[in-house]
Specification:
Keywords: Cell membrane, Cytoplasmic vesicle, Endocytosis, Membrane, Phosphoprotein, Protein transport, Repeat, Transport. By secondary structure, the protein is an alpha+beta fold. The chain has helices at 112-144, 204-209, 224-237, 242-255; strands at residues 7-20, 42-51, 54-60, 67-73, 81-83, 90-96, 102-108, 160-162, 165-167.
Length: 256
Amino acid sequence: AAELEYESVLCVKPDVNVYRIPPRASNRGYRASDWKLDHPDWTGRLRVTSKGKTAYIKLEDKVSGELFAQAPIDQYPGIAVETVTDSSRYFVIRIQDGTGRSAFIGIGFTDRGDAFDFNVSLQDHFKWVKQETEISKESQEADTRPKLDLGFKEGQTIKLNIGNMMTKKGGAAKPRVSGSGGLSLLPPPPGGKIAALPISPPSSTAIANHVTPPPVLKSSNVGSADILLDLDAPASASKAPASATTDLWGDFSTAS
């Protein structure tokens, strides 16, 4: 994994001043006013690079690019890079050589914007390192958790109910239309009409046999007995014209 890591450049500043700083007198922090700010001990170019999770502050020559000093940083803020208490343009860094020796020096920028970019580049890098660590930790915890087996066992089947239709393997269900009593009813043909039953006209015999009762007179002198007599009157009157019937048959005999 170390061989696959590549070095990326986070920040480049063409002008940086390097100072020798006195030992720290107390735990209050470093003060840039204690340095000889008008007479820097070295001037060159600063590059901030990263390789894996480690960042590097490299002080290089402006012309040749030769490395003057290097400060590896494992965390920020930390002991490898500290800010001074009286200015935002000066920092104290811990440089190291390949033999394991280390020393603390002061660096400063003439432009406040350069100091801001230097600070932000380190913050962004270690913010990314923190996120990568959390993601790696979560993935390791997920691998140790028991996994749910949601697959079908051998011979296990399921059925799907879609509305009132049940689908089975090998065929599709057909809808059934049932009427009252469990009998199947066919729908009427399109455009069909129901013919009305013909009503036969009343025959002449039925009209002749129909007897309409006479109207009842609305009078206070007529009683219930008179009403009954009026209803029986047409029956008795129908028996009176016997001679007319005899004369009718006589006419038929004469004609023959």
